[in-house]
Design goal:
Elements (H helix, E strand, L loop, with lengths): L2 H26 L10 H32 L3 H36 L3 H13 L2 H4 L14 E2 L20 E2 L4
Antiparallel strand pairs: 1-2
Helix pairs in contact: 1-2
């Protein structure tokens, strides 16, 4: 038992004893006599009945509290379906987010509608020599340019050392 239930029972018992005494006091002390009820008897009996009602309310409330402590909680059994529903909701949310992420990745990897058309036109207008890395008819190289001294860049016999900034050179020279 907890302190609250012990105090509840104690308060109820003390209130019941006091109410019972006040209700029976006019006859126990022979204050009433044998005729009609006097004012003292009416007040004492009414107050005693009121305290007895408080006693019964306190005993019922404390008894219900003890029954709740002893009985298994109903919420635990009702919480299981709610937890299963929450788990199902979380799974559907995870599936929806995965589909959204997959769609975003495919949209980012796909070329834009205008870019796909422009890329196919550019490939059609580039002469075959230029696509192979040769020179255009005007003599300008179409090969990519790379700085010397850069990893993967072309070197023309000597390496750039000493921390100087790399110089750009034409690849076809």
């Amino acid at each position: 038992m907890t302190l609250r239930t012990m105090l509840g029972f104690g308060w109820s018992i003390v209130t019941g004893v006091a109410g019972g005494w006040l209700a029976l006091m006019p006859w126990a002390l022979n204050v009433q006599g044998g005729g009609q009820w006097t004012a003292v008897t009416k007040v004492s009996f009414g107050t005693g009945l009121g305290l007895l009602v408080f006693c019964l309310v306190g005993l019922v409330a404390t008894s219900l509290q003890i029954v709740r402590m002893v009985a298994p909680p109903r919420r635990a059994r009702a919480a299981e379906p709610a937890a299963a529903q929450e788990h199902a909701d979380q799974e559907s949310l995870d599936r929806a987010l995965l589909q959204l992420a997959t769609k975003l990745v495919s949209d980012l990897e796909a070329p834009a509608p205008g870019q796909a058309h422009a890329a196919s036109e550019a490939a059609a207008t580039v002469p075959p020599a230029a696509s192979a890395g040769g020179s255009a008819p005007n003599g300008i190289s179409t090969r990519p340019q790379a700085p010397s001294g850069m990893p993967g860049g072309p070197e023309s016999g000597s390496t750039s050392t000493g921390g100087s900034a790399p110089t750009w050179r034409r690849v076809d020279q």
